[in-house]
Amino acid sequence: MEQKPNWSNKTIFTGDNLPVMRGMNSESVDLIYLDPPFNSKRDYAAQIGSKAVGAEFKDTWTLDDIDVEWINLIEQSQPALHRVLLAATSNSDKSYIVYMAVRLLEMHRVLKPTGSIYLHCDPTMGHYLKLMLDSVFGRKNFRNEIVWHYTGGGRSKSYFSKKHDLVFWYSVSHEQCTFNIDQIRVPYRESSGYAKSGIRHKNGKKYLPNPKGTPVDDVWAIPIINPMAKERTGYPTQKPLALLDRIIKASSNPGDVVFDPFCGCATTLVAADDLDRRWVGVDISPKAAELVVSRIEDRQGLFREIIHRTDIPKRSDLGKLPPAASPSNRKTLYGEQGGSCAGCQEHFQPQHLEVDHIIARTNGGTDHLQNLQLLCGHCNRIKGDRGMEYLRVKLGLS
Ligand SMILES: C[S@@+](CC[C@H](N)C(=O)[O-])C[C@H]1O[C@@H](n2cnc3c(N)ncnc32)[C@H](O)[C@@H]1O
Ligand SMILES: [Zn+2]
Fold this sequence. Notes:
By secondary structure, this protein is of the alpha/beta class. The chain has two domains: 11-184 and 222-309, Rossmann fold, CATH 3.40.50; 327-394, DNA Binding (I), subunit A (Orthogonal Bundle), CATH 1.10.30.50. It is built from twelve helices and 15 strands. It has a nine-stranded mixed β-sheet with strand order 10-6-7-5-2-11-12-1-13, with helices on both faces. Strands 3-4 form a two-stranded antiparallel ribbon. The protein has a two-stranded antiparallel ribbon with strand order 8-9. Helix 8 (267-274) links the parallel strand 11 and strand 12. The two termini are 39 Å apart. Residues 341, 343-344, 346, 375-376, 378-379 line the site of zinc ion.
C-alpha cells in the first residue's frame, strides 16, 4: 500500500543518507535522482572564493570504510548483489560496491510501485552499478542508459577525451511507470526535411511533424555549467539544472515527491521546486544545507518554507510495534533461532537470551522483528552497539 511520507515537503537532512533512508516510510517517493561519489580516487573541494567554500567530500575508498555488518547482510539476503561484490577486483571497488548496495536497497524500498530511479555515474564504476541495479530493481525494469555528453575542459593526447557521464534509469515495475514524452520533446534539426513538410508514406498516408518537436533520444548534449553561469555555486560536481529539469519532467508529475539522497548543492531540489514537485534531500556535508537555503533565497525566497533537519526520521508505516524486548518478540525470535544465540550459536534457556537490534537504532534501525535477534549476555556485551561482523570476528567465526 502506498505510504504517506513521514517528513514534510521541502525538507533537507544533513547527515549520512543511510540511517535517514532507513527511517523513511516505504513506498513514499515517486522519483529518485542520485549523483553519488563516483569512486574517482579524488577528494573534491570547492573552489576558493566560491559560495560553496567548505564543501568537500571524500571519493576514495578503502576496506576500512565498510561497516562490515553490511557485507553480512548482503551475503545473507541478497545473493545477486553479493555476486557483484565478488566480481570486484580491488578492495577499493569492493568497499564502494558495499557502500552503494545497502543504500540502493533502501532506495528501492522507499520508492512507490510506480516510481523510478535515475542513477548518475561515470564509466569508472558504471559497469558495477548497472549490475547492482539489475540485482535490486530487476533486469526487466531497466529502461534506459542515458549518455550525458558535454564539451569544455581539457582534452587528452593519450586517450580519447572523457566527455560523458552515464545516467541509468530503472523503474520499480515494468507495467506502470511515468514517462511524459510530450513534456520533453526537443526541436527538430534545422536541416530536417521532415520538420519542414512531414513525409508521405508509400501507403499514401501523410505524417506531419509534431509542433512540440521530436522525442528526445538517449544521448543528451547538455553543456556543463560554465564558469560565468548564473546557476554556478562553486560546489564541486554541481550538475546543470537543464539535466534535472528533463529527468523530473519525464518521470514525475506535478505534486509528486522527488528525492535526492546525495543532493550536493541542491540542483535536484531547485529543479523540482520550479516544476511544482514536492521534494526531500539529504547530504552529509553541512555546507549543502546552507547552499540550499542561499540558492533558494536567490530565487526570490522560493524556498522560504524550507525545513532543515539533522535527526533521523522515525518510520510511521510500521503500525504500532511492540517494544523490542516484548514477550511476544522474544517468543517469536526464540522459535526462529531454535533457542540458540545468534552470535556463538550455543543453546540457552529463554531467560538467558537478550533482545538485540541488528542495525542500531542510532543508525536508523527499527524495532521491527526483522531487525531484532537474540544474543546471550556474553555475546551482547562483546558486540555492544557495533555490527554483527564485529562479533563474528571477535568470536573467531567466519
Ligand atoms: C557528486 S556530489 C552531488 C552533486 C549534486 N548532484 C549537485 O548538483 O550539486 C555527491 C554528494 O554526495 C554527498 N555525500 C557523500 N556521501 C554521502 C552520504 N553517505 N550521505 C549523504 N550524502 C553524501 C557529498 O557531500 C556530495 O555533496
Ligand atoms: Zn552467544
